[in-house]
Amino acid sequence: MNARLDHHNPLVFDTHELGRRPGALRKVTRSVPAPKDFGIDGVIGAPEGAPVELDLRLESVMEGVLVTGTARVTAEGECVRCLEPLSREVAADFQELFSYHETDDRGRVRAEPAAGDEDSGEEDTLFVEDGLFDLEPVLRDAVVLALPMQPVCREECAGLCSTCGARLDDDPDHHHDAVDIRWAALQGLAETVKDGEKDNMGGAEPGVDEKQEK
C-alpha cells in the first residue's frame, strides 16, 4: 500500500465531505507555499515558500474525485538575452481525476498489482488515499508547462553586445568598428614585406663605384 498522506501538508486535500456521492461539489480557495524546485531548473521558477494562490473545484464522480483548478504564482528568473533579473505572474489551469482504489464486496481495498506489472494501467494514475489526495504532482506539472522556456525581460530586449558584453538597451548607439579580416591580413603582409626590405637595405653589399675606388 502507498504511504499515508499527511493531512497537515497544505497541498493535501480532504474529500470526506463529498461522501462518494456522484455530483457532490466542493469549492476550495487556499494559499499554499511553493514547494522546493518549483519551476524550470536554472531558468525560471517560484522561490521555495512563495505564495501559490489556488482556486479549486472538487467534484465527486463514480471513479473518484475530479479536481479542476487554477494556480497563480509569481515566478522569478533572468532574461535569456540580457541576463537581468525578471519576474512573471503565472496562471496555470489544470484538471485531474484522483481515482478510488478498487474494493472487494466488503469494501476492502484490493491488493495492489505487483511491481513491474505492465498490464496494471496504474503507473500514471493518481489515487484518493483514505479520503485524501496530494495535489503537488499535478500542480507542479501545470505550473512548469505555463512557464516560458526562454524568458525575456521584455519582447524588445536587445540583449548583450557579442563583442564586449555591454547591455545594448543601456546604450542604443553602442557599436564597435568592424575590421575586415581580409584587409587586416593584407595589412599584416604589407608590414612584413616592408620590414624585410629594411633588413635587406641595412645589410646590402657595397655598390660598384665603391669597389672601383678601392
Short summary:
18% of the residues lie in helices and 29% in strands. With 214 residues, the protein is α+β, with helices and mostly antiparallel strands. The termini are far apart.
Describe the structure.
With 214 residues, the protein is an alpha+beta fold. The chain has one domain. The chain contains 3 helices and 9 strands.
What structural class do the secondary elements suggest? alpha+beta
The ordered H/E elements are EEEEEEEEEHHH
The structural domain count equals 1
* Net shape: rod-shaped
Terminal-residue CA separation: 116 Å
Low-confidence stretches: 104-108
Largest sheet: 7 strands, mixed
List the helices and strands and how they pair.
Layout: E1 12-14, E2 25-33, E3 38-40, E4 44-46, E5 51-60, E6 64-78, E7 85-99, E8 126-127, E9 132-134, H1 136-146, H2 181-202, H3 208-213
Parallel strand pairs: 7-8
Antiparallel strand pairs: 1-9, 2-5, 3-4, 4-6, 5-6, 6-7
